[in-house]
Structure formats: structure tokens, C-alpha cells
């Protein structure tokens, strides 16, 4: 592809690419996001390519297969979108491909059985489906639309136009002002105003002339979160463009992209995008003839959760152990190698090109005044429509979980929603109408975090959930400060006792006191927010804790020490399926007569419960 | 308040426990307190090396305008008009829990027991995994070896609850110059017990390079 030497070149290149497009060609977009990939989307894409080749369709119909990033509706994967018809096929298997090619691509007909049906309505296109219709996409705008390995695709969709506008027609100061006007707040968790952060870096650089660095934080480590992953995999040029604009605004010539090594596709796509951007002339020296130099280096994180914390991330980039330091002197003043450093999250940067394009004022009017814009969430757990959603800030929690997410399958409502990752909080159903924005979530003891949303129902035990998250954080503690290293271990010890039905109500208060001490005393945000799952579950589900401690019962039937399995003799048909599945061989009984479980040998693994077709296994 | 006061050149005025004090601009709260004979307990702090805020025992409550938060005094820079309280309910809650953790982390240390008793902490609710342990992983030995001696014979190995002071491969390290600085700065005497691993028997050293 031609190198662009000035802003007009980029626009001309885009026009040429658009003109060269054959609009009569059908386009097949196969989602290769993490969810669909896990469900075999690569085989579907392969089947399409093979079917088209075998039928010789390349000569006349010439369908274009695009392997795109995440379409969002992971529950229905693998997903296939077709253009120009706009047809949306769900749960496509490689076996279905032949029929799609024959019916839709050749004859132009709809394969009804692959359409999505909800509450008796069948939907032909994605935009009609309530899951998509209620969303507004900014950060994830190109996901599912473009093929992330094709630079042409990105350019046709407007990649680097905002960067060209900023570099060629705006002063760095104007870019910072635009960001300040937009009110964009960091999507990584803390929600610090991005414009103000950039401004501080500019001021710090004035005081201490020399290198300024920018860092993009792609070390998404929250269990159940995949927003940044989806963006890096599906729209790598969007991230690079955000970094370029940021670098220009704060006067940085070197950027670092810190991606966890567990995201190999993100690393691969970003690396390819870096090479493409360098060849295009959007990275490197004298970008667009403006005299501005900027390049990006990818640093792979080795998987430590704490390295998502800014100062630990800097240590890691510097080649030291990933341990945080106190942030009494902010990183915009003293970050990487002691130089002013601006750290922004992937999703934050992905918003930047749109803000430059549409203007900060436009952005500021989306969502509430104190948390403008949209936010991407990964909706997982006991929810019907598992997937990646992006909605305006400030919508009620129930809108996301129940309207978009479709609620809990087979249940009236959810029990709780964990927001903000492992160090976020558990929001009970009674607060389902809380506005999902930075400040409202903090007020109720949870937090926005990076946007993970784990939905729980009445089969999830809050003590067990709190224990799970605390144990995760205990293992991820770097060990530098005492409250985190030993305090979290101590909290897990308390929760272990509670889950065995030991402890007392006083100990519950002691646990709260310990949690508060860790919140106040820990060095970094990992430790400082780690007690949140415990503190919020005690605040909103105290009764469930007391059920464990006082009544020695686990109402959700999860905590193994407090439950017993038994067989309902009225329901048991004596089919023997549980007997064959029981790893302890502790279920006995004659065929076609009710069986019994030997409680002493039972390890409460739940295999019988899972295998029973008659609902005859009781857990109490 | 302090804004009305006339500033002395290069000095900032702040208040610690109700007592107006002055500090040099680049001082921390702890340095200022010590200069004024105000006691704040510390374990991982030593003036010979850089502070790292690991033990969190030196927490104080810092108040500026109408917000306040818990900070570690060994790192928190002084600021004009800052109000510091060294013993509030929140500070004491953090400190007492930390002392309890320390009793479980290094139960064999007499120094830690004495310190904890001084704050009324006589027992611990945390599980004791290593009854003979004296080390609290404050890292003074590691820092003095790197920053003052300049040899880096010891460092931290592993992380989280498994973190420990170690030499490469856990064998005596030829880089150790047997200066004893690590033993001197150790607040509990744990380093003395670790000398065999770090220094070994100097008279029997063979070969060059780092490890034997």
C-alpha cells in the first residue's frame, strides 16, 4: 500500500479504496472473537472458504470472507453476518455452511433455521435484535465490522482520519482541550478524567524538559472480563490511532503497549497492525509530513494481575519485578524511568479517535454529566445473553442485565451482580435500578472497574463467591506490603471458617474491621480494593453469612461442609444413572426402586445432581 | 490558617498531632516527625536506604482541606498546611491489625512481640505457618545490599505469601562481601539466622562469579 505523506494522501487513499470496492460482492463476516472461536468459529470460516472455492464462486459471485473481531453476542456463537442482505445467522456449525452458500449466497434466500428467535419473534438482521438495538457502540464501533488483519478495511472504515485531523489541523493544546471538553474518564477502573491527566503530563513536561512516554494498558486481568481483549483483537488500528493522538497531544515520541501474553491473538493482531501503520507512514518519523515522530513498542506481560496497576506495570516495562510503588508523586510527573508518563487503558484510547472526529461536546452529551460516554461491559455468569455490550453510562443495572442480558435463564431475577472485577462489589437485586456510572457504583460500595459484570442467581453462595475472589487476589498479591500479603490470607482464613459453619457473629464484625484496615493500609489499588467483595456481601447479604455461622446452613447449597445430598424416594425411578456417575460409589439401590446415598462416603461433588433426569436429588 | 503565615524560605509549615512544625520541602512526614521528636513506629524504614512503604506500620492520617486519608509517613511528602494525626481510630485499626499479622508472620521475633505489646496486641487471629520465623520481609537487607554496599548479593524470590529473601539458587553467593550491613539493619535478627545461606563460609570460597 502507498505511503501517506500528508493528511490529504490518507483521504485520497481512502477514496481510492472505496472506489475500488466491488459493492456487488456479498460479504460474509464470521466472528472470530474469543467466545465464537471457543465454539469453533475458525472451522466455520474455513468451511466457507472451502465451499466457495469448491463451487467456483470466486469467479462469478465472488463472496468476500472476513474473519472479524467480536460481534458481541457470544451466547449465540459462532456468529455469521452477511452483507448486503444484513442477515444474521446464529450458532452456525461447519455443517451449516454448505446450505448458507447454496441458499443465501447463490439463491439469495434466507436460511430460517439459523435465524435468531426470541420470545416467538424471529429476527433477520442483527440491528433488530433487542440485544443489539439497545446498545450504542463507540469504543467497540469497528468490532465485527472490519477484518483486523486488513489495513484496507480499517482505512475504508475511517481509521487514522481523526489522527490526521489532529496532527495536521489541530495544535496539541487543542487536542487536550477537546478531551477535557469530552469529559472522558479512564475506562481502566479509577475513572480519572483523561483530559486532565493529559494536561498534567503536558505541565509536568514543561517543568522537566525531556522524554515523555505514553503507555497503553492492555493487561486486562479480571476474571470474566474481555472488553479490552475484544478491542485489541478486533480493532488494533483503533487502539494505535488513539495512542498516536494521545502522543501528539502530550508530546511523546515513544509509546508502550502492555499486553498480557495470555492474549496471543491480540498480540499477533497488534504486531501486524504496528507493521502496517509503519508502512503506511502513520507511525515512525515525520508522520504525515508534520515533523512529529512517534512509534510504539509492544511489551508482553507475564500474567501477573498486579501488573495492571500502573506503577507495577511501569516496573515490569523497566525490566524489574512487577511491584507497585506509592503514588504520592503521580506517574504523569514521574513514571517510566522517572519521566512524565501517561497511562491509559485500551478502551479509553479507543474512544479518543471518535472524540476528535465528532468533537468533545458531542461526547459530553452522551450519558450523565459526571460520567459521559459509553462503556463496554462483558456480561457473563448466570445470564441468558452472555456477551460484550456497550451502552451509554448511567443506564440502570437492570437494563444491562435484564433487558439486554435477558435475565437469569429459568429464574425470576438475579440474586446479585459482581461489577468491577474481583475487587469490585456485589450489587444485590434490590439495587437493580442503580445507575451504572463511576460515582453511583462507588456510592453503593462497588465500582465500575474495567467493566466485568458477573451475574449470580440463587444457586451462588455469597460466602463462596467472596472466598473465590479473595483467594484469587491473595494469590495475585505481589507481597510487597503486609496488609495485602498477609491480610488477604487472613480474610480467606475467616471465610474458610464461615464456609464450614464455624465462627461467630463477632468474627463477622472482626472481618469487617480487618477489611477496613486493609482498604486503608494497603499500598496499591489491588490491596486497597481487595476487601470490597467481602465488605459488600456482608453489607447486603449479612443474613446469608449468619445462616452459615449460626444456623450452619448454606442456603445456596454450595458450601460443601454444610450441605448433604439425599434422594427423594417419590421422584427416584431407580434408573441407576446416578450410580454410574458417582465417583465414590456411595449410591446404592435395586434397579427400578428408589436409591439411597451413603452420607458418610459422599464427597458432595454434585455429579448425581447433574446426572439425575427426574430432579430426585435434594441438596440441603 | 497557615496560608496567612509568612513563609520562611524553602520551608513548609504543617501540623503534626496539633503541634505546628516546619520541614524542608523535600522531607517526608516521617522525617519531619522524627526531627521534631514525634514518635511514629516503623519497621521497614532506615535512613540509609530509600523508603519503600512495605510494612505500613508508619501509617498516619493526612488531612488537607476537607478530605483526609490514610498514608504512609515514610513516603508522604510534606506540604504547606498539611495536618497529620499519628493516632486516630482509623490509624490504630490499621496498625493493630498489622501487628497481629506480624505476630503470625514472624512469631519467633522478640522485637515484634515487644512492639505489639506496646500497642496492646498480645495475640494473633491469623494462622501461624512457620513458628520459628523471624523475618517480616521488610526488605531492608535487600535494599542496603543494593543501594549502600552495591553488590546485590540478596534479593526477593517468589511473590505474595511465598515471598522470601533469597540468593540465586538459595546457595551462598560469592557476590557477598561479608560486610554484615544486612545483619546490622535487620529489625528482628532474622538476617543473622540466614547468614549461612547468603555468605557461607568465606574461608572456603572457591571459583569466581556469583554462585558457588
Write a concise keyword list for the protein shown above:
heterodimer, A: 620 residues, alpha/beta, Glutaredoxin, Rossmann fold, Ubiquitin-like (UB roll), 5 domains, five-stranded mixed β-sheet, B: 212 residues, alpha+beta, Alpha-Beta Plaits, 2 domains, two-stranded antiparallel sheet, 7 helices, 7 strands, disordered N terminus
How do the strands and helices of this protein lay out in sequence?
The complex is a heterodimer of chains A (620) and B (212).
Chain A: H1 7-20, E1 27-31, H2 34-38, H3 41-54, E2 64-68, E3 80-83, E4 88-89, H4 94-106, E5 116-118, E6 121-123, H5 130-133, H6 151-156, H7 161-169, H8 172-182, H9 194-207, E7 213-218, H10 227-234, H11 236-250, E8 254-260, H12 264-280, E9 284-287, E10 292-301, H13 310-317, E11 341-345, H14 346-358, H15 360-364, E12 374-381, E13 387-392, H16 397-404, E14 416-419, E15 425-428, H17 438-443, E16 452-456, H18 462-476, H19 482-499, H20 505-521, H21 525-529, H22 532-540, H23 542-549, E17 565-567, H24 577-581, E18 587-588, E19 596-597, H25 607-611, E20 617-619
Parallel strand pairs in A: 1-2, 7-8, 7-11, 8-10, 12-16
Antiparallel strand pairs in A: 1-3, 3-4, 5-6, 9-10, 12-13, 14-15, 14-16, 17-20, 18-19
Chain B: E1 11-16, E2 19-24, H1 29-35, E3 59-64, E4 67-72, E5 83-85, H2 89-105, H3 110-118, H4 140-149, E6 155-157, E7 164-166, H5 181-185, H6 190-193, H7 195-198
Parallel strand pairs in B: 1-5
Antiparallel strand pairs in B: 1-2, 3-4, 3-5, 6-7
Helix pairs in contact in B: 2-3
- Count of extended strands of chain B: 7
Helix tally of chain B equals: 7
By CATH reckoning, the class of the largest domain in chain A would read Alpha Beta
Q: Helical percent range of chain A?
A: 40-55%
Instruction: Please name the CATH architecture of the largest domain in chain A.
Output: 3-Layer(aba) Sandwich
Sheet with most strands: strand arrangement of chain B: 2-1-5-3-4
Share in β-strands of chain A: 5-15%
Principal-axis shape of chain A equals globular
Class of secondary structure makeup of chain A: alpha/beta
Biggest sheet strand order of chain A reads: 9-10-8-7-11
**How many angstroms separate the termini of chain B?**
63 Å
Look at the structure and give the mean pLDDT of chain A.
Answer: 93
Greatest interface: A-B, 32 and 36 residues
Computed Rg of chain A: 27 Å
Radius of gyration of chain B: 20 Å
Q: How many independent structural domains of chain A?
A: 5
Biggest sheet record of chain A: 5 strands, mixed
Residues in helices of chain B, as a percent range: 25-40%
The number of helical segments of chain A is 25
**Uncertain residue segments of chain B:** 1-6
Q: What's the average pLDDT of chain B?
A: 90
Amino acid at each position: 500500500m502507498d505511503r501517506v505523506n500528508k493528511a490529504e494522501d490518507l483521504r485520497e487513499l481512502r477514496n481510492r479504496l472505496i472506489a475500488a470496492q466491488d459493492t456487488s460482492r456479498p460479504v460474509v463476516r464470521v466472528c472470530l472473537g474469543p467466545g465464537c472461536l471457543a465454539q469453533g468459529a475458525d472451522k466455520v470460516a474455513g468451511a466457507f472458504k472451502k465451499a466457495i472455492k469448491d463451487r467456483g464462486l470466486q469467479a462469478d459471485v465472488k463472496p468476500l470472507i472476513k474473519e472479524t473481531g467480536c460481534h458481541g453476542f457470544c451466547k449465540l456463537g459462532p456468529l455469521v453476518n452477511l452483507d448486503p442482505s444484513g442477515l444474521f445467522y446464529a450458532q452456525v456449525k461447519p455443517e451449516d455452511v454448505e446450505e448458507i452458500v447454496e441458499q443465501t449466497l447463490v439463491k439469495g434466500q434466507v436460511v430460517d433455521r439459523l435465524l435468531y428467535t426470541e420470545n416467538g419473534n424471529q429476527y433477520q438482521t442483527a440491528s433488530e435484535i433487542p440485544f443489539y438495538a439497545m446498545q450504542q457502540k463507540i469504543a467497540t464501533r469497528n468490532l465485527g465490522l472490519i477484518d483486523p488483519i486488513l489495513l484496507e478495511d480499517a482505512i475504508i472504515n475511517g481509521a487514522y482520519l481523526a489522527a490526521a485531523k489532529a496532527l495536521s489541523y489541530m495544535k496539541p493544546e487543542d487536542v487536550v482541550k477537546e478531551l477535557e471538553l469530552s469529559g472522558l474518564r479512564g475506562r481502566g477502573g479509577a475513572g480519572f478524567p483523561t483530559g486532565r491527566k493529559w494536561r498534567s503530563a503536558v505541565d509536568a513536561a514543561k517543568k522537566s524538559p525531556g522524554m515523555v512516554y505514553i503507555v497503553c494498558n492492555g493487561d486486562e486481568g479480571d476474571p470474566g472480563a474481555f472488553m479490552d481483549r475484544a478491542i485489541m483483537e478486533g480493532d488494533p488500528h483503533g487502539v494505535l490511532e488513539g495512542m498516536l493522538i494521545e502522543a501528539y497531544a502530550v508530546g511523546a515520541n515513544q509509546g508502550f503497549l502492555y499486553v498480557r501474553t495470555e492474549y496471543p491473538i491480540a498480540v499477533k493482531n497488534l504486531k501486524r497492525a504496528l507493521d502496517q501503520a509503519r508502512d503506511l507512514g502513520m507511525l515512525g518519523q515525520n508522520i504525515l509530513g508534520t515533523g512529529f515522530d512517534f512509534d510504539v513498542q509492544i511489551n508482553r506481560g507475564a500474567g501477573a494481575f498486579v501488573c495492571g496497576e500502573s506503577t507495577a506495570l511501569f516496573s515490569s516495562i523497566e525490566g524489574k519485578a512487577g511491584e507497585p510503588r506509592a503514588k504520592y508523586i503521580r506517574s504523569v510527573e514521574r513514571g517510566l524511568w522517572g519521566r512524565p508518563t501517561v497511562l491509559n487503558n485500551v478502551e479509553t484510547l479507543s474512544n479518543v479517535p471518535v472524540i476528535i472526529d465528532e468533537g468533545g461536546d458531542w461526547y459530553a452529551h452522551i450519558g450523565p454529566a459526571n460520567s459521559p460516554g459509553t462503556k463496554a461491559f462483558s456480561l457473563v455468569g448466570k445470564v441468558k445473553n452472555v456477551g460484550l455490550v456497550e451502552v451509554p453510562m448511567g443506564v440502570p443495572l437492570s437494563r444491562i442485565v435484564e433487558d439486554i442480558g435477558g435475565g437469569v435463564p429459568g429464574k425470576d431475577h438475579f440474586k446479585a451482580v459482581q461489577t468491577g472485577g474481583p475487587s469490585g462489589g456485589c450489587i444485590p437485586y434490590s439495587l437493580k435500578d442503580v445507575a451504572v456510572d463511576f460515582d453511583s457504583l462507588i456510592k453503593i460500595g462497588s465500582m465500575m472497574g474495567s467493566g466485568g459484570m458477573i451475574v449470580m442467581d440463587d444457586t451462588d453462595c455469597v460466602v463462596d463467591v467472596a472466598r473465590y475472589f479473595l483467594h484469587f487476589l491473595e494469590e495475585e498479591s505481589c507481597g510487597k506490603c503486609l496488609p495485602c500479603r498477609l491480610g488477604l490470607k487472613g480474610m480467606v482464613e475467616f471465610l474458610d471458617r464461615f464456609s464450614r459453619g464455624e465462627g461467630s457473629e463477632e468474627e463477622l464484625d472482626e472481618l469487617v474491621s480487618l477489611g477496613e484496615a486493609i482498604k486503608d493500609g494497603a499500598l496499591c489499588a489491588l490491596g486497597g480494593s481487595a476487601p470490597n467483595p467481602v465488605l459488600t456481601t456482608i453489607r447486603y447479604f449479612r443474613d446469608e453469612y449468619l445462616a452459615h455461622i449460626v444456623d450452619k446452613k448454606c442456603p445456596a447449597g454450595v458450601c460443601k461442609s454444610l450441605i448433604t445430598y439425599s434422594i427423594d424416594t417419590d421422584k427416584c425411578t431407580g434408573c441407576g444413572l446416578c450410580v454410574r456417575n458417582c465417583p465414590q460409589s456411595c449410591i446404592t439401590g435395586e434397579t427400578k426402586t428408589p436409591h439411597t446415598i451413603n452420607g458418610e462416603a459422599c464427597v458432595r461433588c454434585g455429579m448425581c445432581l447433574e446426572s439425575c433426569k427426574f430432579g430426585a436429588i435434594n441438596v440441603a | 490558617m497557615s496560608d496567612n503565615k509568612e513563609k520562611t524560605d524553602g520551608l513548609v509549615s504543617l501540623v503534626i498531632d496539633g503541634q505546628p512544625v516546619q520541614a524542608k520541602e523535600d522531607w517526608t512526614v516521617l522525617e519531619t516527625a522524627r526531627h521534631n521528636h514525634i514518635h511514629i513506629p516503623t519497621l521497614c524504614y532506615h535512613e540509609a536506604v530509600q523508603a519503600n512503604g512495605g510494612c505500613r506500620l508508619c501509617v498516619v492520617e493526612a488531612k488537607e482541606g476537607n478530605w483526609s486519608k490514610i498514608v504512609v509517613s515514610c513516603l508522604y511528602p510534606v506540604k504547606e498546611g498539611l495536618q497529620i494525626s499519628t493516632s486516630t481510630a482509623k490509624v490504630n485499626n490499621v496498625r493493630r491489625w498489622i501487628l497481629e499479622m506480624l505476630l503470625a508472620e514472624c512469631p519467633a521475633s522478640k522485637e515484634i512481640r515487644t512492639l505489639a505489646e506496646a500497642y496492646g496486641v498480645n495475640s494473633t487471629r491469623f494462622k501461624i505457618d512457620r513458628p520459628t520465623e523471624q523475618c517480616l520481609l521488610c526488605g531492608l537487607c535487600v535494599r542496603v545490599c543494593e543501594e549502600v554496599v552495591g553488590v546485590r548479593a540478596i534479593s526477593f524470590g517468589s511473590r505474595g505469601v511465598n515471598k522470601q529473601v533469597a540468593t540465586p539458587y538459595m546457595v551462598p553467593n560469592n557476590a557477598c562481601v561479608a560486610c554484615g550491613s544486612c545483619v546490622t539493619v535487620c529489625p528482628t535478627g532474622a538476617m543473622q539466622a540466614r547468614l549461612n545461606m547468603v555468605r557461607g563460609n568465606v574461608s572456603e570460597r572457591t571459583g569466581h562469579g556469583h554462585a558457588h
